[in-house]
Amino acid sequence: MTTVDRLLAEHAHVARLMRAAVGLRVAAVALGALTLGAMTLGKTRWLALPRPVPALLWLVVAAAAWGVWELQRRRRRLHALPSDVAHAIEQERCLRDGAARTLLEVAPQGGPFVRRADALLGVRLGSAPLAPRLRITTRRTLLGSVGAVVAIVAGAVGSGRTHSDGWRALLHPASAWAGTLLPTLVFDDPPAGLLRGDTAMLRVHASGRHVITVRTRATGGAWRDTSLVVRADVAAWRVGPLDADLMLVASDGRAHSDTLRLRLAERSFVGDLTVSARFPAYLGRADETLPGEAALRIPEGTTLAITGRASEPLRFVTLGGDAARVPLVISGRAFTGRFTPRQSGALSWRAEGEAGLIADLPAPLQVEVVPDSAPQVDFLSPSADSSVSPAGAVRVAVAAADDRVLRDVTINVWTRRSDGRATPPQARRLFDGGAPSFLG
User: End-to-end alpha-carbon separation of the chain, Å?
Assistant: First the structure.
């Protein structure tokens, strides 16, 4: 092998090492930029950023790699040509400046003088490596590049565990743009058969998200947004009390769930309750309609008539308690009943319609029966026993009162003589009744 061949072989070896080092440096910068981009997008931050960001990060990575390549390419020109390596050999081996480079320049011409110069330079160089220090420097550069790549690869692997969604967004920018990168948002087993006034617990499966927004709209109302924190891939919250059908849509900023509609069923109820009282005839009191929601204080002997309606056809309806059991007659949705309470107590409702037991019932009917007390009669004068002559006269004043009304006031009068005999009693009506008191 001629000296020129050795110079060219040395150049080829150094050039390979330099190209490998430069390639590794470019790869390290590109991978490092990708890792930073994935960490920037990770932890669902890519959902809050503009849609083009994952794609734009690729342009940033490409620009960074190209900048490093261009910088290294310019620095590599020191050892890019055979003359550069020859110059480094001259400096390391203390040769005359230009000894190796001149030989490379005239080698293509050939001739005895070129062969003589080749042989003389070969003797000067010997069989040892032509540029050992250059080789060491180049290998160190290559090893440094390898170490940088290994460190960045380790960092990328670590970020893949902590920022996996960022890597997915970076590697699939189109899916990130369209919102199909993460699993679909799904409402979990929405409740059915809700009634007006009910509340409901809703759950949304939101894998990979930290926060979602749920838009709700009641019939006739405007859309409202609610932000929910996702825990263990599930966001849960309570809605209600509901007074209208409700539409819900969950969103993470990119993807949207199917629209969920909570339809309310009309609550079955018993209402339109009327309670009428017919008082005992001796009271002379007209019939009255009483408030069914308040306690009923009625005289003993009062008859109550009850009417009401339900929101659906009835199978049965009962009103009763410890005090009494009221017989009720059903006619479709309506019912009627009549009874005379004998004692005080609470009467509870129970009803069943075509759809089952009815929960919305009137309050228990509170009945207080006030027994009729005996009237009170007092003699105002004379105030005590007294004796009078047979021809004398006695003025008697009587006061009578009742808690309701007096039917009549009658005084019985008889005479007891000195011999002990008494005359038959004579009844004298003083008052024909119609008022709660009498004084006469």
Answer: 162
Backbone angles phi, psi at 219, to 5 degrees: -55, 125
What would the pLDDT profile of 250-291 be if each residue is shown by its tens digit?
998 888 888 999 888 777 888 888 999 998 887 778 888 888
Q: Which residue has the tokens 């003025």?
A: 395
pTM of the model: 0.50
Structure-token match 């005839």, residue found: 281
The Cα–Cα gap between 85 and 79 comes to 6
Paired residues of 306 in beta bridges: 275, 337
pLDDT confidence bin for 305, thresholds 50/70/90: very high
- The letter for the amino acid at 343 is Q
For 89-199, strand residue ranges (E) read 186-187, 194-195
What CA–CA distance (Å, rounded) separates 283 from 289? Answer: 17
229-268: b or e for each residue (b if 16 or more CB lie within 10 Å)? ebeeeebeeebeebeeebbbbbbbbbbebeebebebeeeb
Count of C-beta atoms within a 10 Å radius of residue 89: 25
Q: Which helix (H) or strand (E) holds 169?
A: helix 164-171
